[in-house]
Amino acid sequence: MIRKLLQKIPYPFGRPARRRTTPAIIPSSQHNLSRERMNRNAVTVVDRLQQAGYEAFAVGGCVRDLLIGMEPKDFDVATSATPEQVRATFRNSRLIGRRFKLAHVHFGREIIEVATFRSNHGEESTDGEVQSDEHSRQSETGRLLRDNVYGTLEQDAQRRDFTINSLYYDVRTGNIHDFANGLRDIRNGEIRLIGDPVQRYHEDPVRMLRAVRFAAKLDFEIEPHSAAPLVEMSELLHDIPAARLFDECLKLLMSGQGEQTFELLHHHDLFAPLFPDTDEAIEDNPDYTLKLIRHALRNTDDRIREGRPVTPAFLFAALLWPALPNRIKALEDSGIPSIPAHQQAAHELLFEQCRHTAIPKRFSVPMREIWDMQPRLERRSGRRADQMLEHPRFRAAYDFLLLREAAGEQTDGLGEWWTRYQSATEDQRRSMVRAVGDKASGPKRPRSRRKRKPRAQAD
Ligand code: ATP
Ligand code: MG
Fold this sequence. Notes:
By secondary structure, the protein is of the alpha+beta class. The protein folds into 2 domains: 17-188, 2-Layer Sandwich (Beta Polymerase, domain 2); 276-437, cca-adding enzyme, domain 2, CATH 1.10.3090.
């Protein structure tokens, strides 16, 4: 369907140069964007900034997605006003960010992100100001540590990541300003970095992840020059703050195209810097690990499509699960008994993972619970199965068990048992538990021989 819509976008130019310095202005008669299709609050922001005498455009993902016929996730505005001037124009706004300072204009729960035109580094800023540490900083590898040198619209168009993200829509005139041949690439379904890919990835290695994300989301190809350096440069992601990478992981894997995104990440060696332990598990045990990851992501994609809730806790539990056995084995080999080895392995794996993607506690705590409940799902004697059923995390733990089984883990029909138990009558439940109890009293379960406490205390 997307391809069909793309055919409608006109292609009025000859073979264009890589960088265009004069804008191609595409009038409203030649594209399918309109003021009405744009978000009302974004239009208000652009109108108000223009009335206050500034240049202002809708830009980035919202223009790109609307041209393709997709629903934009959020709406970004680019303007000649500085963040402070935006702040002064909108009472309902806040300044955010240090590395990249911008204004958020709030409309109830909706936020319109307003960014001031930036210039490329090494160019003079619009007010002729000499660049200082305060505005612009780069690391030894060329990574931009701060990107607050303001510039003109033309300069802003060149500093954006991909040509398809560098389209500016003027809501008043209806014109689209296209300095980087973004429309051509939208039409051809190509993700192309603006400028030299190696330099642009050095400036911000997260652009590598963004290339893959947009390729999966839009069903586009990463054009060869933009794709070629990915494998070689993927290591640069280790320098990115773990909190930023966690946010990026959510966008990559929880936006509805997680499975396809994973395939691309894996293909371009970009999965390893995000999940190094899981990547090792893929090498050691590819069939099982890849099956589990793909299954988890497919489930997540399906749930998103059906409007059902998804949580990073479940997905991260799944992505890291295949990395646990190696760690458990190493600890057991060093003489640590099985149960503490499991606990310690989980703790260490999570700690290590957080150095790459900083998983906030609100997700890591339930994630650990899902893991810890897996062996407990096996113990069903007495009142345990009923207590388990009442546990607030039961559903997630049960779904997780089914996921493990779908990936080929042998559990002796445990998932099927729980499926039946949930819909069984009280009598059926008692006999199911008795049947398990008979098994559980065998030699596999020395703990059942423990002296029973009086009933009131045991509960
Ligand atoms: P979506 O919102 O659907 O994820 P988007 O393209 O709008 O996609 P945002 O992260 O919202 O992405 O960024 C808005 C715009 O800012 C982008 O379209 C791009 O022009 C620019 N941009 C964002 N991140 C970068 C970056 N790392 N380097 C250069 N430009 C960027
Ligand atoms: Mg956006």
